[in-house]
Amino acid sequence: MTLRKPDLPAGAHHDLSVALHELHRKAGWPSVRDLERTIGVDFVGRTRIYDAFTSPRLPPWGVLSVLVPELARRVPRMDADEQTDHFHRLWDSAAQAKDARTRAWSVVLTDAGGRRIQLVELIRSVTGAGLAEATEMLAHCPATLAIGLTQEGAERLVSRVEALGALADVREEGR
Question: Side-chain half-sphere of 50: how many Cα atoms within 13 Å?
């Protein structure tokens, strides 16, 4: 039985999901119940197996570490250890990408050159600072404009700052 594929954007997690579904197909589409029975409910239950295939969340390595070898054993001339190593690399890439998306980033104004009036307006809209405080930030660079952003959000803010002729850096918080 084919299982529904999660709707994932292109990237490492998507690649892992596609590879898992491909391995499931090659193994003859065993049912979740059959996989549970073979693996042993004490290790991984039916729901966790089902979620590994269908959930948009990254499956825990512990689930894949028992699921992948079981699927590989069902495919003629497929090496279960090789598949496990391959899937661990895929999973690790997806985990690193997920970690990069969930880390917090900050934007630091490093040079206030450029259009100062527009830059003060941008600083006030981003930080909620008053006119005097925003002007003070320009005078005493480096100044932190925002904290707790996603990497994508921080990069967008830097683009807005640079469009006004100033310079800013994206920095990972806690490092």
Answer: 9
Single-letter amino acid, residue 42: D
Q: Given a cut of 80, is residue 1 above it in pLDDT?
A: no
d(C-alpha 53, C-alpha 40), whole Å:
18
* pTM of the complete model beyond 0.85: no
CA distances from 119 to 107, 130, 150, 152 (A): 14, 13, 22, 20
Helices (H), the chain: 12-26, 32-39, 46-54, 61-73, 80-102, 116-127, 131-139, 151-163
Task: Name residue 59's beta-bridge partners.
Answer: none
CB atoms within 10 A of CB 70: 19
